Amino acid sequence: MAKAKTSGWIDISVPVRNSMVHWPDDPPIRIECVSDMEQGNRVTVSRISMGAHTGTHMDAPVHFIRSEKGVNTMPIEATIGMARVIEIRDPESIKPSELEPHNIQSGERVLFKTRNSHRCWETDCFVENFVSIPKQAAEFLAERRIRTVGIDYLSVGGMSNGIKIHLALLKAGIWIIEGLNLATWRPVPTNSFVFPYDSKEPTVPPPGPS
Question: For the segment 76-102, what is each residue's pLDDT rounded down to a tens digit?
Answer without folding.
Answer: 899 888 899 999 999 999 999 999 999
